[in-house]
Protein 1
Amino acid sequence: MSTTAPVRLPPMPAAAPRGPARRLSDLLYTRRGLLLTALLAPPLLWFGVIYLGSLFALLANAFFGLDDFTGQVVREFTLANFKALTDGANLDVVRRTVTMAAAVTLACIVLGFPVAYTMARHASGTQKAALYILVMLPLWSSYLVRLYAWKLLMAKEGAISWVATELHLGWLLDALLSLPAVGGSSLSFSTLGTFVVFVYMWLPFMILPVQAAIERIPGSYIEASSDLGAHPGTTFWKVVFPLALPGVAAGSIFTFSLTLGDYIIPQVIGDSTLYIGQVVYRQQGVAGNLPFAAAFSLVPIAVVGVYLWIAKRMGAFDAL
């Protein structure tokens, strides 16, 4: 009786030692939360240190005072800067700025909604591309170039005055400039001119979110409204506009906040009336009163914060 010798298998090669990179890769693969933390840590650190840190430093300076003799910041707690904000002149600046921001936002909605609706519902192919180019074209040039171009257009001897004269509409332009609240010696030195330039600058920021919101409205909703006998105007107010409202709110975030903080346009276009951005710039850059500038700069932050809360309730961030 013969016996068969057992077969000896060759020894398995020893596994190569894993390097630190491989071990780190395995760790990140098996623990997805750690991977997400590693990805978000740099931008969150930047946001926390640079952005929020600067805001907290700004808030801290608002509670300091200024030595009238030396012009140096006195790091002692005081509420004098916030008390100064309640002065009549400063309240007028806040009221004027918020009113301008609201008026510009409303004008951008009225002018931008028809353009956005046309782009979303009626234009296609080449027409849609051409409308996109026309909306985006002003943003391809320098902010200051566009601003000073409007300065020349609205000057007393500018193109707008010349066209009004040629069309025998000079009386209408003179009537607008004679209005006590919005007029001036020319369009370039009037509140009306400031308003026009603000609307021109921020109008694309209203059109694009509204257009995106209207495009997301299912066409079947509009067809169903028509099949049920609704008038086109009723369909617009009962179906299209409510569903496009998040886009309107999203666009208004840009137009309202950009107007609220801008100081260059009122500096170049308009009369001597001041806006919040100009006051902050002059107090910090000219007068060297950093504590009061910090206190005043908290006003638009608070206003925009309330506005963002209202816009969020309206679903604005879903349309961004």
Note: The chain is about 70% helix and 0% strand.
Protein 2
Amino acid sequence: MTDTSAFDKPESQSAAIWRQFRQHKGAVFGLCVLGFLVVFVLIGPLFWQAPELTTTQQILNKNKPPSWAHPMGTDQIGRDILERMMQAGRVSLAVGFAAMMIAIFVGTFIGVLAGYFKRLDGPLMRLTDMFLALPLIPLLLVMVMLFRDKIAGIVGPEMGAFILIVCAIGVTSWMHAARIVRGEVLALKEREYVLAARSIGTPPRRVILRHILPNVISPVMVAATLGIAEAIITESVLSFLGLGFPPDFPTWGRLLFDGLQYMQLYPERVIWPGLAISLTVLSVNYIGDGLRDALDPKARGR
């Protein structure tokens, strides 16, 4: 009988990465939880919308316990907590992903320049060390206090707060990504194919785009997953301190801040947003661990 195993189609790289990722139970759990939260905040409002109430009805409807009409109850002014959880989740996740993209772009750019160009390595790494030495939360508080009203006067209070918080978190969170990318670039630029490309006169821009950047995608993706969790936590801290988004523009951190003074009477006011933040951060961290193992060729070979 002919052995057909030798003629089997070789496994593609994407299939090998997905197979290794699926073997990480925590990563699969994190992906399922994050997927549920994304569906909850994006598609949930299509199936659940609390009826609009007049001012008198809202006053009569305040601080209601969970019921069929309000599965998570109502807040201190009669608003449906489930609906606000969905609205807050969209903002919190948007802040996390947008701030992560800014941080990864800046960190990758600085890391590639520092790793590839020796004359830029010292100044850029000292700049990175300086940012690492700065206290993050006080710096963000100062930035919010200085620029919140100016940006709100241009694009409005809600969009202004979103742009300010996303940019503030992004430009103060790129340092770890820069260090990771720099280390990878320092190793990659000594590889044979990079040395060969440089020896035939290939411009540095082309070497970076063709040979360096494609090979630093793996650590960048892992850093990106961790950056989402850090951005969500940072935004929650700002909102919890009352310096995030306006009260009528909810985030999970803002819901925590609003429910703090009612925590003893209505503990679910802080349990629901706190649980959402914790599950999001935990799931993203597990996904990052799974990606780190799946993108490691040595791990895939085991």
Note: Residues 1 and 95 are 60 Å apart (CA to CA).
